[in-house]
Amino acid sequence: MAEAAEKETRSNEESTDESEEDESEEEPKLKYERLSNGVTEILQKDAASCMTVHEKFLALGTHYGKVYLLDVQGNITQKFDVSPVKINQISLDESGEHMGVCSEDGKVQVFGLYSAEEFHETFDCPIKIVAVHPHFVRSHFKQFVTGGKKLLLYERGWMNRWKPSVLHEGEGNIRNVKWRGHLIAWANNMGVKILDMISKQRITNVPRDDISLRPDMYPCSLCWKDNLTLIIGWGNSVKICSVKERHASEMRDLPNRYVEIVFQFDTEFYISGLAPLCDQLVILSYVKEISEKTEVECCARPRLDIVQPLPESCEEISSDALTVRGFQENECRDYHLEYSEGESLFYIISPRDVVVAKERDQDDHIDWLLEKKKYEEALMAAEISQKTIKKHKILDIGLAYINHLVEKGEHDLAARKCQKILGKNTELWEFEVYKFKEIGQLKAISRYLPRRDPVLKPLIYEMVLHEFLESDYEGFATLIKEWPGDLYNNTIIVQAVVDHLKKDPQNRTLLRTLAELYTYDQRYGRALEIYLTLRHKDVFQLIHKHNLFSSIKDKIVLLMDFDSEKAVDMLLDNEDKISIDRVVEELENRPELQHVYLHKLFKRDHHKGQRYHEKQISLYAEYDRPNLLPFLRDSTHCPLEKALEICQQRNFVEETVYLLSRMGNSRSALKMIMEELQDVDKAIEFAKEQDDGELWEDLILYSIDKPPFITGLLNNIGTHVDPILLIHRIKEGMEIPNLRDSLVKILQDYNLQILLREGCKKILVADSLSLLKKMHRTQMKGVLVDEENICESCLSPILPADASKAFNVVVFHCRHMFHKECLPVSNTVSSVQFCNICSAKHRGPGSAILEMKK
Known about the structure:
Blueprint: E1 30-34, H1 38-45, E2 48-53, E3 58-62, E4 66-70, E5 76-81, E6 87-92, E7 98-103, E8 107-112, E9 118-122, E10 129-132, E11 143-147, E12 150-156, E13 162-169, E14 176-180, E15 183-187, E16 191-196, E17 201-207, E18 221-226, E19 229-234, E20 237-245, E21 257-266, E22 270-277, E23 280-286, E24 288-290, E25 297-299, E26 303-309, E27 314-321, E28 336-340, E29 345-350, E30 353-359, H2 362-371, H3 375-384, H4 394-408, H5 411-422, H6 426-438, H7 442-446, H8 458-471, H9 473-482, H10 490-503, H11 508-520, H12 524-534, H13 539-546, H14 556-562, H15 564-573, H16 580-586, H17 591-604, H18 613-623, H19 628-634, H20 640-649, H21 653-662, H22 666-677, H23 680-690, H24 693-703, H25 707-716, H26 723-729, H27 739-779, E31 808-812, E32 817-819, H28 836-841, E33 849-853
Antiparallel strand pairs: 1-30, 2-3, 3-4, 4-5, 6-7, 7-8, 8-9, 10-11, 11-12, 12-13, 14-15, 15-16, 16-17, 18-19, 19-20, 20-21, 22-23, 23-26, 24-25, 26-27, 28-29, 29-30, 31-32, 31-33
Helix pairs in contact: 2-3, 3-4, 4-5, 8-9, 8-10, 9-11, 10-11, 11-12, 12-13, 14-15, 15-17, 17-18, 18-20, 19-21, 20-21, 21-22, 22-23, 22-24, 25-27
GO molecular function, one term: zinc ion binding
Function: Plays a role in vesicle-mediated protein trafficking to lysosomal compartments including the endocytic membrane transport pathways.
Keywords: Autophagy, Cytoplasm, Cytoplasmic vesicle, Endosome, Golgi apparatus, Lysosome, Membrane, Metal-binding, Protein transport, Transport, Zinc, Zinc-finger
């Protein structure tokens, strides 16, 4: 069985023995302290025999017949001399205003602590128990029971006289009694009985299990968990009984209540006391063991166990061995367990000692975690319960955790925890940094130093940077990049880097870092020089961010050599800061770079660099011929004669053909295609683009003696020139490759054209008919004629004032209206009339008559 160390409060006047250390990692459930002050004085001269606990005070009985009222700290508030011999039991009602006391010499006293109410009786035998009614303070509950050889109930009746009645006798001495609500439970030599005070009926008898044990040496322990649950401990047996109502159909002559044993189990040791703890059970056990020296059975330290009851067994939750004074001389009957229901306090009473056990709170939990060096769990527990803990501070636990990690050599973890634990406390941060410096671990804490809110002294950051500069250039560069430049004195760090560069002037890491430091110090020119020397990718970002365009006007070639694409984009995006003329001038000696710049400029805007288009012809011809022809096509500013001269010199056929056609010399262009390129498809394509009949004639004449060219023409000419013109010119007997296929293709193309024409005609006729029908339906609709309409001839209202008279109105489809008499008489043979207004312009649909008669 695991043993927990006794936690106790030591007074200035005495020291106590400690419990054995718990060797397991399981945390104890209870903590312990001795009840001192007045109790210490009492037990130095006397011995405790019994005690009762009320939520307001304690009542302690002694072997010398004294009863002491104590506060919860053990200070004496009242003293009663009851008897010269041992006090056997003390009973209090729920209000704590009345007390019952019985002693070994047969005396029984029941009296009010704050009133003159009192009862005295002396019996001819020792009285072992007394219990006052829980509601004794009320006038109609003035009852108490006593127990010696028989169980007597005293009730106050008429004239304030006490009337005794025997509840039970004949089964030996009454050893224990507990009164709860309307139920009284008592134990005698034979077992445990329960009496229902309402019906005055005994409802159960729970026999004693082990009859070999003397009931005076191993007394029964009784405890009510609630008004209907009784816990019985006797010997090493525990029974939990539940009082239940009997069903009406089962009553007959039986009591209306019965008892069911819901849990029953045996323990390893003899039971001296019981108390409930939520759904668990606290058991005080009397222990005997064999001495290693004498091999004789002797008394060991009592145990306080917490168990979880099961139907036929129990599960041990915790077990503590208690070092009480004089435990070697105590018997099972000398120990008692009392408890305070409201506060979960448990009092272990022995003749020479009173120990208080209480549930461990969060402070105690943190104490145990710190003792076991579980600092992270302790810190987490403190954070969760920071509003309830009183003894501990989160910061103190955190600092202890950091120190523990440092001692274990886990410097990186310790440094990481500093962020959470130290928070914004700059003094603690600086203290920890110096501590890390002493053990040579500044690098470990460097990543976690605060950079904003709070900010430490510049000296702290400089100290860390110097540490890296001496041993780790890459780490130093990383810190400079990550840390804001205002954390430290930039001038001091720059000078330190310059000093190191004197030893190693080509160190790229230090040069890059120095450029960043110059940037923080707003010395952008120096930073730019270093970046260009290193060909560093951040050079363009630096120029953009700090508007350094005035500083790069003479460094354009360097930028283009480093990254021509980014450099050109940057220059073109900032033409207002560096003009096109300045860039072209700077690149005069580097025509390949000049071409890259002008090419991108032309792509962005065909007109901006028009003054350089003549120059670009040579640049394209020299460095980028694939883009020469697109340039010639898109540019409207390049001199065609100059371009033609350059292309003819370099024998650029395609470009020359384009220039000749653009200059209007299409025949020369076609001739060059046929003679130089000998590409009939391209020649045909060129003729199609020009759409010139003379060109087609020249093409046919040139191709007439070349069978492959004739095949190409037959395959492609059908939609532009009548193929008969070509076919008639072919010499008889000339062998033309794929002639049949070409003729078939011509016929297919012709059929296709015919089909397309017929299809288009059908669509046109169908659409015309559909629109005509739609117009007809529209014109056949009725036209509204009302008082607002007027005659277009006489301009008077179209409808007469007297609608009862007959009238004739003529309405045309164009919506013009006339009185019939206002229309001129038609001279034509046709009876169809037309609107005078519309027919004056043109005669068309919508002008025919729609006559209304009445």
